């Protein structure tokens, strides 16, 4: 049995998403056939919560309200989720395995300059969504569920929704929301349920939510 690389990643809320991206890129020719992607967050140190509260990042009432007009921050939560990722060939060789999701494309970039440390950069977010669609050979009209970061703030949420709409608006054209089938379902990484598990937030928990929506 070959031993592949073991990498620890900390990109805050996107840690497990970046980990899954790197796992997928390891499937390139000459790489791995299978990879474990994990996201873990433990709220052990009270000092971290105190710093975030002082910075005004946490909701005053202790509840996440992402994509809501009353959004005023998030709350910290804990999670530990591991997913087995494998190539299509490896999956067939292993026999019948419950498949939670199929990854068609993935992409990672960085915000670059923005108005503040916690403010998203709309054009950068548009670019990374387009890159993921291009890699996967997926068109905007094919997207029916969007799992978002959802910062739960009056600043971040509109920027993220605006970036998503700029890329995916071709789905509606001039018939915006003309029928239930034309609508795009928005989800948020698990922040509203009821707290943010940071590195464990996505995409591990998202797969379960998307499977529920698809039913």
Q: Can you tell me the CATH architecture?
A: 3-Layer(aba) Sandwich
CATH class: Alpha Beta
Query: Which ranges are low-confidence, i.e. pLDDT below 50, for 5 or more consecutive residues?
Result: 208-215
**Broad structural category:** alpha+beta
Number of strands: 4
Question: What is the overall pLDDT average?
Answer: 79
List the secondary-structure elements in sequence, H or E: HEHEHHEHEH
User: What's the Cα radius of gyration?
Assistant: 18 Å
Tally the structural domains.
1
The major pleated sheet works out as:
2 strands, antiparallel
Strand content: 5-15%
Percent of residues in helices comes to 25-40%
The name CATH uses for the topology is Peroxisomal Thiolase, Chain A, domain 1
Question: Going across the major beta sheet, what is the strand order?
Answer: 1-2
Distance between the termini: 38 Å
What key attributes describe this structure?
about 220 residues, 4 strands, Peroxisomal Thiolase, Chain A, domain 1, 6 helices, two-stranded antiparallel ribbon, about 30% helix, two-stranded parallel sheet, alpha+beta, disordered C terminus
What does this structure look like?
- The protein has 215 residues and is of the alpha+beta class.
- The chain contains six helices and four strands; from the N terminus they run H-E-H-E-H-H-E-H-E-H.
- 31% of the residues lie in helices and 11% in strands.
- The longest helix has 15 residues, at 122-136.
- It starts with 14 loop residues before the first helix and ends with a helix.
- The chain is globular and about 50 Å long.
- The strands form two sheets. Strands 1-2 form a two-stranded antiparallel ribbon.
- Residues 208-215 have low confidence and may be disordered.
- It has a single domain (12-214), classed as Thiolase/Chalcone synthase (Peroxisomal Thiolase, Chain A, domain 1, 3-Layer(aba) Sandwich), CATH 3.40.47.10.
């Amino acid at each position: 049995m070959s031993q592949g690389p073991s990498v620890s990643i900390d990109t805050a809320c996107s840690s497990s998403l970046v980990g899954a991206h790197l796992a997928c890129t390891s499937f390139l020719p000459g790489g791995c056939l299978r990879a474990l992607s994990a996201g873990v967050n433990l709220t052990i140190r009270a000092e971290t919560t105190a710093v975030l509260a002082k910075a005004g990042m946490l909701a005053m009432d202790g509840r996440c309200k992402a994509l809501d007009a009353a959004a005023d921050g998030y709350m910290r939560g804990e999670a530990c989720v591991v997913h087995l990722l494998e190539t299509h060939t490896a999956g067939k060789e292993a026999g019948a395995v419950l498949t939670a999701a199929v990854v068609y494309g993935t992409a990672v970039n960085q915000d670059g300059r923005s108005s503040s440390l916690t403010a998203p950069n709309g054009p950068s977010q548009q670019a990374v969504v387009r890159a993921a669609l291009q890699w996967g050979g997926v068109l905007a009209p094919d997207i029916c569920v969007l799992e978002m970061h959802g910062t739960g703030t009056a600043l971040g949420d509109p920027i993220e929704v605006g970036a998503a709409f700029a890329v995916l608006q071709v789905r509606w054209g001039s018939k915006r929301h003309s029928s239930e089938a034309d609508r795009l379902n928005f989800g948020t990484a698990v922040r509203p349920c009821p707290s943010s598990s940071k590195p464990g937030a996505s995409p591990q928990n998202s797969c379960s939510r998307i499977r529920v929506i698809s039913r």
